[in-house]
């Protein structure tokens, strides 16, 4: 589904991603963990080219997105993204947030988009909030709307960039539950997260990143139970204690 | 001091006529300046620095030199160069439009750039083109933030249109000067003119604060 080959990313002189190669299979749920500044978010943002890629290749569903001839707008329709700061459109209601891209980008009829939007809102448990504005919602509700908005484009992959980091603790669970359900339905997911419990429970594989490299990758029980690298051990001892 | 209301009454038809010209100049300059300003403002935030350059120069020139100088340049230079003759009304509209476009461009630029960049990223991540993201996500939010500074600019424009008096455009200030020249009195013409400007700017402020309230909700 996604192949990353020798991906490098620099901001000016600072090389944030040094040499990342990884394959992600269809229906796989991969969590990316690591200390802050390790390049996790940058890695994720390179996968839909919100960051320009300095060198290397990223192939999404057979399309090399580093090729300038590839239509990124088409590729991005297949790759949903959920942000730490939600980034809902504040001037639009919840349902308008959800239908905007399907109607304007895909050309779905408004009626059809609303029907689908309502069913997505039901799925994330917010059908009664369709006509609310984002500033009337709690953080957890906003993030669930953001997930529904991304799903409205019927993406093949979902990217989550620390989706619960900006939430009050009591709202983390409701967002993680929606994500678990999505994982169980077979969505391909890449999740940058600090929620070790979620990573353990849901993911097929964990990538541990530090200093711009993937230091270690393994199934969660292996990576958490029997970490191989010193840096992985040091990080886990901090977050698990 | 003997305040000559009778002379003010005598000149009132000219003041009212001048006021209409002032309103006309201002409306024309607001319309042209806004369209031109939007274009220049978008040019100023272009990705390519070479595309940005002429727009930056434009804004630097028109904000960094006096409107007085610009008015004379347009009246005696630019307009004759283009239409062969000069005309106070056309020259005043052109000078005011070019000048206000520079300020309005900055208002548009600041408004667009004040929107959190997460909004653009979210729109693009959904597959929207840059243009679609601008149109459906960024501009509707930016426009609301632009209304107060745009209103200020329009008020400034009404007042600065008085500079057109020096190129003999028959607007409000022109008639004030004419009355002073004819009767050698100062207070009567200029206080009257000041009062009429005040009425114009206050009315516009009222309209603008109404518009602001109407669009404030989100």
Description of the molecule:
The complex is a heterodimer of chains A (241) and B (218). With 241 residues, chain A is an alpha/beta fold. Helix content of chain A is 39%, strand content 25%. In chain A, the strands form 2 sheets. Chain A has a 6-stranded mixed beta sheet with strand order 6-7-8-3-9-10, with helices on both faces. A 4-stranded antiparallel beta sheet of chain A has the order 2-1-4-5, covered by helices on one side. Chain A is globular, with a radius of gyration of 18 Å. The longest helix of chain B is centred in the first third of the chain and has 40 residues. Chain B is mainly alpha-helical and 218 residues long. Chain B is built from 8 helices and no strands. The chains are: A alpha/beta (241), B mainly alpha (218).
Name the descriptors.
heterodimer; A: 241 residues; alpha/beta; six-stranded mixed β-sheet; four-stranded antiparallel β-sheet; 9 helices; globular; B: 218 residues; mainly alpha; 8 helices; 0% strand
The amount of helix of chain B comes to: over 70%
Provide the low-confidence segments of chain A as ranges. none
Count of helical stretches of chain A: 9
Main β sheet profile of chain A = 6 strands, mixed
Largest sheet of chain B at a glance?
Answer: none
Strand content of chain A: 15-25%
The percentage of residues in β strands of chain B lies in: under 5%
Order of helices and strands of chain B: HHHHHHHH
Measured by residues with Cβ under 8 Å of the partner chain's Cβ, the largest interface is:
A-B, 27 and 19 residues
């Amino acid at each position: 589904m996604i192949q990353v080959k020798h991906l490098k990313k620099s901001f000016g002189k600072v090389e944030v991603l040094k040499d990342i190669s990884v394959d992600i299979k269809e229906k796989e749920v991969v969590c990316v963990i690591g200390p802050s500044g390790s390049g996790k978010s940058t890695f994720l943002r390179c996968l839909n080219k919100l960051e320009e890629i300095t060198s290397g290749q990223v192939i999404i569903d057979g399309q090399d997105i580093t090729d300038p001839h590839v239509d990124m707008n088409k590729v991005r329709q297949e790759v949903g993204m959920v942000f730490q700061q939600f980034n809902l459109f504040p001037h639009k209601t919840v349902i308008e947030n959800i239908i905007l891209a399907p109607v304007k980008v895909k050309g779905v009829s408004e009626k059809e988009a609303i029907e689908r939007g309502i069913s997505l809102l039901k799925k994330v448990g917010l059908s009664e909030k369709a006509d609310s504005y984002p500033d009337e919602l709690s953080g957890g509700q906003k993030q669930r709307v953001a997930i529904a908005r991304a799903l409205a484009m019927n993406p093949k992959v979902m990217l989550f960039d620390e989706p619960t980091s900006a939430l009050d603790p009591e709202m983390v669970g409701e967002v993680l539950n929606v994500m678990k359900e999505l994982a169980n339905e077979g969505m391909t997911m890449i999740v940058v997260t600090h929620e070790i419990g979620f990573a353990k429970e849901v993911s097929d594989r964990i990538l541990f990143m530090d200093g711009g490299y993937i230091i270690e990758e393994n199934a969660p029980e292996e990576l958490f139970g029997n970490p191989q690298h010193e840096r992985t051990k040091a990080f886990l001892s901090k977050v698990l204690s | 001091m003997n305040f000559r209301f009778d002379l003010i009454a005598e000149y009132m038809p000219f003041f009212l006529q001048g006021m209409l010209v002032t309103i006309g100049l201002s409306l024309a300059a607001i319309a042209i300046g806004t369209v031109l300003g939007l274009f220049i403002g978008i040019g100023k935030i272009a990705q390519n620095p070479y595309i940005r350059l002429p727009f930056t120069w434009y804004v630097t020139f028109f904000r960094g030199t006096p409107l007085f100088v610009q008015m004379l340049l347009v009246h005696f230079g630019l307009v004759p160069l283009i239409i062969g003759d000069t005309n106070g009304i056309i020259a005043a509209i052109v000078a005011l439009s070019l000048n206000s476009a520079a300020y309005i461009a900055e208002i548009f630029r600041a408004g667009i750039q004040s929107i959190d960049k997460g909004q653009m990223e979210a729109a693009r991540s959904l597959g929207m083109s840059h243009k679609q993201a601008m149109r459906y996500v960024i501009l509707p939010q930016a426009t609301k933030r632009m209304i107060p500074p745009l209103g200020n600019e329009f008020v400034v424009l009404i007042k600065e249109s008085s500079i057109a008096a020096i190129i003999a455009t028959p607007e409000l200030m022109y008639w004030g000067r004419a009355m002073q020249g004819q009767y050698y009195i100062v207070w009567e013409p200029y206080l009257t003119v000041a009062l009429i400007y005040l009425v114009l700017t206050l009315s516009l402020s009222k309209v603008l604060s109404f518009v602001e309230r109407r669009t404030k909700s989100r």
